[in-house]
Amino acid sequence: MTDVTSTSGAVRKHRKTAPRALQVIANRLAQAIPTIACVLVVNFFLVRLIPGDPVDAFVAKAQAADALFKENLRHEMGLDQPIWVQFGIYLWKIVHLDFGWSFQNSAPVLEVILSRLWPTVLLVVVSIALSLIGGVVLGVTAARYFLTWKDRAIAIMSMILYAMPAFWIGLSLIVVFSVKLRLVPVGGFDTIGSGKTGLAYALDVARHMVLPAVTLGLFYLAVYTRLVRASMLELLDSDFVRTARAKGLSESTVLWRHMLPHALLPVLTMVGVQLGSLLSGAIVIETVFSWPGLGRLTFQAALQRDYNTLLAILLMSTVVVVTANLIVDLVSAWIDRRMDVN
C-alpha cells in the first residue's frame, strides 16, 4: 500500500514538473528570439563603425597599395555595395548557417571558430568550477563566522581580488610562478613539438592552463564569495533554519544541507549572466597568456577588421549566453518550486 502511494506521488510530481519546465522553455524562447535578432542587427552595424575595413587591413598586411587592387578586392568582398544590401546578404547567409569566409585565416569562418572553440570552453569551464567551489567554501565560512576575524579576512581578500585588473593579476602570476619559480609555463596551450600523447599530453595542457584559469577565476571567486555570504546571512532567521536547529541538527548540517541549496539560487543566476563577461575576460587572459582560444581570435579579428569572423563570434556568444540563462532558469525553477516562471 505504501509503495502504491509513493508511486502515485512520484507520478503526480513528475506531471507537475514537466509542464512547468515546458512553460519556462516557451517563455524564455519567446524572449530569446527577438533578443538574438536585435543583437544580430546591432552587431552588424557596430562592427561597420570600426575605422578602416578588411581591405585596408589586408593591404597593410600584404604591403600592397595599388588602388585598382584594393578596388577589385572590395568588389570581391561585396564592400562596394550599399550597407543595406550588405546587411541583406549577411542575413540571408545567417539563415542558411553560412558564416562566410575569413580572409585573414584563408578558411571558412565556421572552421576557424571550431578550431579555437575547445581551448576557450576548457578554460572557461575550469575557471567557473574553481571560482564556484572556492566562492561557496569561502562564502559559507564567512557566514558561519560572521563578524569574526575569519569573516573580515575573507571580506578584505574578496574586495582586493574584485578591485584588481585581470591583466595585472595575470602578469604578476607570470613573474612569480613562471619567471622566478619556473613552476609553470609562461603561455601557450601545450609544449610545441613535445610529441606527448594520452595522459602525458593532458598533464602538459593542465600545466599550461594553471595560470590562465586561476587568473580568470579569481575575479569571479570574489563575486561568488560575497554573493554566497550575503545569501546565507539573509537565511539565518528563516523559519526552516530555526526548525532545523530546534531538531538538534549540527551547525554544519544546517549550513551545508539546509541553507546552501537556497543560497545558491542567486549564484546560479549570476553564472548565467556572467557567461558573456567571461568571454570578454577570456579575451584579455588569452591575449596575456597566448592561449589559442576564441578570446584571442576575437582580438585578432577586431584588429584585422575580419568582419565575418567577428560577427560570427559575437552571434555565437549571444546564443551561448541566452541558452545558459535558459538552463539556469530551469535549474532554479527545479530547486525552488515557488519561483515565478514568468
What is the averaged pLDDT score?
A: 81
Query: Termini, distance in Å?
Result: 39 Å
The percent range for helix content is: over 70%
Helix segment count?
Answer: 12
Strand order of the largest sheet: 1-2
- The total strand number stands at 2
Q: What amount of the residues lies in strands?
A: under 5%
> Biggest β-sheet, characterized?
2 strands, antiparallel
Estimated radius of gyration: 25 Å
Basic shape: globular
**Poorly predicted runs:** 1-7
The secondary structure category is: mainly alpha
What is the N-to-C order of secondary-structure elements (H for helix, E for strand)?
Answer: HHHHEEHHHHHHHH
Describe the structure.
With 342 residues, the chain is mainly α. Residues 1-7 have low confidence and may be disordered. The longest helix has 47 residues, at 2-48. It contains 12 helices and 2 strands, in the order ααααββαααααααα. The chain is globular, with a radius of gyration of 25 Å. Strands 1-2 form a two-stranded antiparallel sheet. Helix 10 (251-288) runs parallel beside helix 11 (294-303) and helix 11 (294-303) packs antiparallel against helix 12 (307-335). Helix content is 79%, strand content 1%. It has helices at residues 2-48, 54-62, 67-77, 83-95, 109-144, 149-163, 166-180, 198-235, 239-246, 251-288, 294-303, 307-335; strands spanning 101-102, 107-108.
